[in-house]
Amino acid sequence: MSILIGIVGIIITLAIGFVLSNNRKHINYKAIIILMLLEFIVTLIMFKTTVGLKIIEAVSNGVSNVLNYGYEGVNFVTGGLVPEGTSVFFINVLMLIIFTSTLLSLLTYIRVLPLAIKYIGGALAKLTGLSKVVTFNSINSIFFGQSETLLAIKSHLDTMNANKLFIVCTSAMASVSASIMGAYMNMIPAKYVLVAMLLNALSSLIMATLVAPIKQAEDEAINIKDVSTSNSIFGAISAGALDGGKVALIVAAMLVAYVGLLALINGFFTSVFGISFTEIIGYIFAPVAWIMGIPGSEIITAGSVMGTKLAANEFVAMLQFQDLIPKLSEKTIGIVSTFLVSFANFASIGIISGSIQAINGEKADIVAKFGLKMLLTATLASILTATIVGLFV
Asked: What is the pLDDT of residues 288-318, one digit of tens each?
């Protein structure tokens, strides 16, 4: 029954995208069908075949082993501050972002990532008929944050119309940065983090091209020099470390603010109305959780976490979800975990608008106008990814 509900959920999600479309006559149905098939094939292989399960296990173990080297640096700096057997979120989770950001910067400087992204994006463009810039940006979003992703295509922004700009911004919002992947994997199951990062690149293209269709573009040249601004390998290491440190501090500051405010609001609602704010959010998002295939007995709990992610951010929601995982079914864990792995929240509208303002001021006004629609589309992409994963869990 949950599979049937999930299929209906996918149809409803796509239907909402169709209703929101600003040019239904030019929707690239071929691209959408191909991308949907790719999502189903990838998810089927990853969760229902021996080879796929071994790939996920191998990648998860490989990432964990690499992250362990990062802990050497963390332990060197903070050794003795955390008693054995205990965990301090900033030290055990957030400081690891510094190491992963450095590693990402290094792989970018030596052109390993940019070349892989360029050719995978090019193959996707050829397969779907979509713009090379759009597919490059989508694949690039798997690895880099919202601002970095947009910087990589800055030379193309001048010639972008509103729809193409909408697609690249939505792809950036619907993804996450690989530099904080390790932090996520410390809070929710690693396999869902890995699969969500891959599938979100496809889901964001599906929903964004449905909402804002674009015509097939002329051949576009992708310049991978725009991806890295470092002048040397040591400059890349330093830049990566500093960027990671900034992200860790920003996330820590936001968590202090959001978790504290959420506790304050919950306390107020409980004392005045006899029900917490997060419980109210749970009831609001329960129907969404249900059409995604989550069991009826868990939709309010799941809806509460999903609503928190949209209102605050994914870190706050993951911290809330982490304590609930032992009490929930594997299907709910898979669907909610996958949903949480994206930047789709209200704060991201400001981040993307600010990034575009810094790169190309003329385009900033356009982005500001479609901010809420971009958030809705990115959230629909997260729902699509999570619902597809739910069919195979």
From this structure: 999 999 999 999 999 999 999 988 889 999 9
Structural domain includes residue 82: no
Query: What does the pLDDT look like over 8-30, one tens digit per residue?
Result: 999 999 999 999 999 999 999 99
195-228: per-residue pLDDT in tens? 999 999 999 999 999 999 987 665 566 766 666 6
Residue 44 within a domain = yes
Q: How many CA atoms within 13 Å lie on the side-chain side of 152?
A: 30
Residue 56 domain-assigned (yes or no): yes
Q: Could you list the residue range(s) of the whole structural domain that residue 341 is in?
A: 2-77+87-392
In the chain, how many domains are there? 1
Which pTM does this prediction carry? 0.90
